[in-house]
Amino acid sequence: MQAEAATIAPSSAAELIRNAAALIFDVDGTLAETEELHRRAFNLAFAGHGLDWHWDRAAYKDLLRVTGGKERIRAFHTRQWIASPLSDADIAELHRIKTAHFAELVETGCCPLRPGVADLLTAAKARGQRLAIATTTSHGNIDALLSRALGARWAADFDAIVAGDDVRHKKPAPDVYLDILARLKLAPSDCVAIEDSANGLIAASRASIPVLITRSMYFRDDDFSAARVVLDDLSELDAKQKN
Ligand code: XBP
Ligand code: MG
Predict the structure, then answer these.
(1) Could you identify the atom of ligand 1 that is nearest to the CA of residue 136?
(2) 214 backbone φψ class: left, alpha, beta (φ>0; ψ -120 to 50)
(3) Residue-wise pLDDT tens digits, 88-143
């Protein structure tokens, strides 16, 4: 039985968001449901590389416990009983090809922002709140997704952006969140992290940042008991603000 979110009801979620000096957004699963595109991009890269690997949704759900695409490929490779040796350089090249496929898939427009995301970004900017991104994915993937969703000048609205390869340890380590706090020169309690996964919740919590969870496709049944609030998506905030 999963414990419910600890402290506040969704009705106070809007207040938690409004009172923060900065909102720190995760990307994959939070801003957009990108993991299906990542999964397709991995499979296209494997096929193009002559590997008979195919990650179906069940396999990918399990592999998503490993954060970082390169680390995920290595974890899968290690589990293969019979596998041709893959060096770190081989994996980096495979991941580069995967990232190119991901950008092509995003460009088709089939991965819009999740409900409530655009409205929250607009409302936060109007309130003078600062915006940041703390993610495991790459700067290239962030740019592909947000250029398509928010236009070419999307980055001008964000005060700090920290991606997976900017830090030594990816989520659930707190590195990306600690880096954001240092760049914003804010205390953790002045911020709210918006996440979708247990790894993201752990990472932000280790940086002492309160977390709002929006349930996503692959992490719906993760344990979010340490979150301040759990929503199905960010459009619930808008509904709460209207009451
Ligand atoms: C989710 C991840 C990433 C993506 C794949 O990142 O763990 O690894 O699954 O992207 P987030 P890469 O912290 O935004 O939820 O292949 O670029 O790693
Ligand atoms: Mg995520």
Answers:
(1) 13
(2) beta
(3) 999 999 999 999 999 999 999 999 999 999 999 999 999 999 999 999 999 999 99
Cα-to-chain-centroid distance, residue 231: 16
Kindly give the distance from the C-alpha atom of residue 201 to the centroid of ligand 2, in angstroms, as a whole number: 9
Q: What percent of the chain has pLDDT over 90?
A: 90
Can you tell me the distance from the alpha carbon of 169 to that of 166, in angstroms, rounded to the nearest whole number?
9
For 66-79, how does the pLDDT look when each residue is reduced to its tens digit (9 = 90+)? 999 999 999 999 99
Q: Where are the alpha helices (DSSP H) in the chain?
A: 10-18, 35-48, 57-63, 69-79, 88-107, 117-126, 139-150, 175-184, 198-206, 235-242
The residues annotated as belonging to the active site are 26, 28
Encoded tokens for 206: 């280790």
Q: What is the rounded CA–CA span in Å between residue 172 and residue 65?
A: 10
Q: What is the DSSP string of 151-181?
A: -TTGGGG-SEEE-GGGSSS-TTSSHHHHHHH
Distance, CA of 208 to CA of 191 (rounded, Å): 10
Instruction: Find how far residue 14's CA is from the centre of its chain.
Output: 21
Taking alpha carbons only, the member of 47, 48, 97, 53 closest to residue 77 is 53
Distance 227 CA to ligand 1 centre (A): 20
CA 127: distance to chain centroid? 24
